[in-house]
Protein: SET domain-containing protein
Amino acid sequence: MKRHSIGKRFRKLKGLRKADPNAIIPETPKQLQDYIETLTNKGVHINKVKYAIFQTKNGLKYPGLIASEKILSNETLVSVPKDLLFTTRHAFESPLKQMFLDHPQYFSNQFYPSWEDHQLLAYILYEYQRGPESEWHLLISNLPRDIDYLVFWNHEEQDLLDDEQLVKLARKQYQEFLVEFETLKCITDKYPNLFKPETVTLDNAKWIYTHLVTRCFGKYLAYVTMVPFCELFNHECTDVFYDFEYNADNPNKSEESEQTQIKELTEDEQLSVTSSDGSYHSEDEISDSEYITDNYDQFKEFDFDQFSEKSTKNFYEEFTRTFDIKQQENEEEEEFNKRIKELQDQQIKMRKDFNIKLNLQREVFLLSRDCKSFIFQNLDYGDNYSIFFIGQMFNKLEKSIQEYINGGKAYFMAREDVKRIQLTCNTYRNNLYAFQKDVMKKPIYQTTSFQQKRSKTQNSTLDNVEQILSQPLDPECEYYKPVWEKDKFDRFVMKASSKDQFEKGAQVYFCYGRLSNRMMLMRYGMTLEYNKYDHAHLRIEYLKYLQNHEAIWLVHKYQLSKYKRFKLKHTTFPIDFIIFCKSIFWTFNVHSLDSFFKIQDLKLERKALQLALEILVEEISKFSDKLEDNEKLLYDNTLGYHEYFAVIYRLERQRIYHHNINLIKICIVVIDRMLDGVPFEQATEKTQFDFDYCETNRMILTKYFEQMRYALYLPK
Structure:
């Protein structure tokens, strides 16, 4: 089955690690050649890779590295002594140190999470103006000015992405960049002895900032770092990674740092790669929350205090009328006193009965309230499914209280109802946590997701230079660490993984991380065709699917997001999206609780799949152009780089939608076969929606189909 994974299929389609017949090995530009010779003389080793020019499908040219010989697994491609690395430590220990100390509001991590970028931006601009006198002159002069990333695209180019939320984020970050630039300019203008007037300009700042965002390393290094020569590696879904080497006498050397054996892979071994060794996970969360802030008046939660006050008032009004007695004409005093005594006894009994009833009603209400508190504390109103379940639980609690209050239900039955609902909620919580942990591979947070999201929106932002630089300073605070330690390794190396090799003439890539095209645009200004880590963001306005007033009221009360969000991927079946659709049809006391997160009712599952299909078909119809048209556009030689990457972005989202639609159609066919009595093994055979990828699709659907098999053997 490993031969049929999405990664293998995409790698084959793109010819990764294979010789590129369109690659050109030109004479290396003199400035770059001087740089490489200088680096080599200082101890940099470059193995089997050299400068080359590659091209996109429509003929756009771009530089990269080509394999000058066959590259075997575990081979080191580039080795750089750590003293040649360009880091934040160099910036801080430079002539700019006093400027940094004078303005911690901009250059210290106590105020700014991007403080290292600020220091490096100032330092690189300072070194840039020094020209050949700078020890970093060749590194800086070889940073091209003709690259950028999404934040710096013009509005027309950004709109080509057809992704409103991504464009919104890019424009927001551009405004933040302008504020950061203006702040830097304000600071550097105070130091004319350090900065020439023509140095700190918007164009220069964009140029350097682009390279800080797109070319720096940092996750496993002590500081944000520029690595000489290694910025020439382009990104792809290969397994080339960076690592650290230690000299024999380095006390930080460990067994893990020992070099692995270089070897040549067989074809089967190349096909067996199932993960990115040495690649690094990256979050891809772009907040696009819009919250429901209007009021909802079609439901009002039962108010016991109000009920108690009204009941007591009504009781005593009736009580007064009933016991307003007068001595009757010719009635003996003794008889009248006896009647008063009887009425007083009756009054005592009525008061006692009323108080007992009210206390029992209060007890049931408090049990109900405790149950709601349990739900609030243990379930996330803002996740993708629970509001449908919680709405039904609130509905049952409200009905049970009302029926008991109105005399339609006995006390002990009302108590049992509340207890049963709480047990149901507890079971649901356990099932939800198990699903999140075992299926979705997500951590369980003590703070609920919707609480986290609401708190994020309350964070204040600094909108101008004055706000940033006027932040008060604490004279007792150390805004910078006293000692800036050096990295503990001796050499930074770029390596092929244990199951990675490149033919002679192939482009040699470095895997920047497991990044979607969305995040690549935000970090590198590029997109990849057939990116196995890509995903499409699906946003669903779910209010129209809520079927009871309690759920709608909760959404308004807690100002939850207007949308439920899902990531549709190439590599996995969208089980969380299917469960969202199933939660719409799931009914308490009709369907089993286990069927919420598992397949136990094939008819219920069939409804969920059908709704999921309808939603995706509707979503893909919103694209302004068709998939086939975008595929043709990739060969349009009138497109520039930004337009080309925008086409890929749209195209890959469409491919993901079509892929997931086909997976859902396959599941519907299989369930229909099973409902018709076809045995499981025959039911899961190839369908008309598998096309040429039956093995790949079965690999993706394995776990989902196993649940279907299990459902066949459950008692009806």
User: Anything to note?
Assistant: The two ends are 34 Å apart (CA to CA). Residues 265-284, 451-460 have pLDDT under 50 and may be disordered. The longest helix spans residues 333-378. The chain has 25 helices and twelve strands.
